From TrEMBL:
This is Aromatic amino acid ammonia-lyase. The keyword Membrane does not apply. Keywords: Lyase. It is an enzyme of class 4 (lyase). GO terms for molecular function: lyase activity. It comes from the Bacteria. Its EC number is 4.3.1.-. Pfam families: Lyase_aromatic.
């Protein structure tokens, strides 16, 4: 059971709930915070106009709501129904569960003024796995309005769940004062970023180990990872990767060259840049999953008279979009580096084996086509690296004249994760075959992490005759995404 307190939420816990391995519970302190926020919002709304509570939204922000509509909740229901439209393919259960977990955490932060009963209903929906159907197109990086409005309609029973089950605690109606606060969040976009970040962290760890296997198969010169080099590195991440690689390849044998090609020599730069960007994205995500960014933001206390609201633009996920852009650029460069290693594994000049790691030189193609597969995946990753954060759009009669399109960034990042698994899988398959053909054994190497990866490679098919390699790539790519593989 993961306790949601609105103050701290580990990214790994979000993944655990998203995967259906844990349920959630709201901390009593979170309920108290939401209750106090609701009182503060109501008191403020009686004293001044509040966006979405006493006014319309978007270009209708200057429209004062009819008091009768707010008293019978007509406006709130209309807002949810009108904003619930999305399109495209339906998202998977894992992504939707992550979205609900993050939205619950944000509400628990106590800056929305929402009725705690709504948070209770979301918690019950999540634990019962009676999930709303959420589709891919709708958000533009300025709050995931369609996804969350659709969730609200599912809680009301107006829209079916993914599998047609009824939600355990259906809401009878939705107060106007709770409508905008619920949908004013980028929980879906953040959820996609969290899931992609966590998968990438595992892939990067495994890519580092796989690159060490390749390094050994090509008898690389580990002077590039020497402590003196690490000490002079321009970033801590680069230095850490150099140190890690030095440990992984310890005892790999005599180097074949005084100086290696860039795909080996520049490994700390390529992988270190990805580490830096992953760490930077992690810091942003750790703040966003517990941030009360609802617009308007509710603050203060009725008891001491400090209650108020602030109309703001924190829902604009421009920082998140820029961080993802930076990560995509680093991944694009790292994948070019990986493609260079795969190419050289096919070259007898670097491995001492037959070309394309074939069984002999009689014209068999060996792993020739794996280089093509990896290149296709790398091309996809590099296309995804085109910056998204420069995009914008003007909507709602000009009232909303900018958008971060962070939702596009996170969708692309998910695509990159899937492509990267193929790249890592192909290099793993080629490096393992090369080591096997060279007659190398895990016991030659000092690093337990290296030996574990080597042994995992030995579980792949040993037959090097020309044959259908699709099952081999599938098996290697599956190993590449396992947290246990690279540790």
């Amino acid at each position: 059971m993961i306790e949601i307190d609105g103050r701290r939420l580990e990214l790994g816990d979000i993944v655990a709930v998203a995967g259906g391995r844990h349920k959630v519970t709201l901390a009593p302190s979170a309920v108290e915070r939401m209750t106090a926020s609701q009182r503060s919002a109501r008191a403020t709304a009686q004293a001044r106009p509040v966006y979405g509570r006493s006014t319309g939204v978007g270009a209708n922000r200057s429209v004062t709501l009819n008091q009768a509509d707010t008293e019978v909740d007509t406006h709130g229901l209309n807002l949810l129904r009108s904003h619930a439209v999305d399109a495209g393919r339906a998202l998977d259960r894992e992504t939707v569960r992550a979205m609900l977990t993050i939205r619950l955490s944000q509400l628990a932060a106590g800056a929305s003024g929402i009725n705690p009963a709504v948070a209770d209903a979301v918690s019950e929906m999540l634990n019962a796995d009676t999930l709303p159907e959420v589709r891919e197109f709708g958000g533009i990086g300025t709050a995931d309005l369609p996804a969350l409005a659709g969730t609200a309609l599912t809680l009301l029973g107006e829209r079916p769940t993914m599998d047609g089950k009824k939600v355990p605690v259906p809401l009878e109606t939705w107060a106007t004062e709770d409508a905008l606060p619920f949908i004013s969040s980028s929980a879906l976009t953040i959820a996609q970023a969290v899931l992609a970040h966590q998968r990438l962290a595992t892939l990067l760890e495994n890519l580092t180990t796989v690159s060490a296997l390749t390094f050994a198969a090509m008898s690389g010169n580990s002077e590039a990872f020497a402590p003196e080099v690490a000490k002079a590195a321009e970033s801590d991440a680069l230095a850490d990767v150099a140190t890690t690689l030095q440990g992984l390849v310890s005892g790999h044998g005599k180097p074949a060259r005084i100086q290696d090609p860039y795909s080996l020599r520049m490994l700390p730069h390529a992988l270190g840049a990805v580490v830096e960007e992953l760490d930077a994205l992690k810091l942003v995500l750790e703040r966003l999953v517990v941030a009360g960014h609802e617009n308007p933001m509710v603050f203060g206390s009725v008891e001491d008279g400090s209650n108020g609201v602030a109309h703001h633009g924190l829902f604009q996920m421009s920082t998140l979009a820029r961080r993802i852009d930076g990560l995509q650029l680093a991944l694009g460069a790292a994948c070019t580096n990986a493609l260079g290693r795969i190419s050289r594994l096919c070259d007898p000049a670097y491995t001492g084996l037959h070309r394309f790691l074939a069984v002999d030189d009689s014209g068999q193609s060996g792993v020739m086509m794996l280089e093509y597969v990896a290149a296709a995946a790398v091309g996809h990753i590099r296309a995804n690296a085109q910056p998204v954060s420069l995009q914008t759009v003007v909507l709602s009669l000009g009232a909303e004249e900018d958008a971060s399109f962070a939702s596009v960034s996170t969708s692309r990042l998910d695509s990159t994760v899937r492509a990267l698994a193929t790249v890592v899988g192909v290099e793993f398959l080629c490096a393992s075959r090369a080591l096997r053909l060279q007659g190398r054994t895990p016991g030659e190497f000092a690093s337990p992490r290296f030996r574990k990866a080597f042994n995992a490679g030995l579980s792949l098919p040993a037959d090097v005759q020309d044959r259908d390699l699709r099952p081999d790539v599938d098996a290697a790519s599956h190993l590449a995404i396992l947290p246990e593989f690279g540790r």
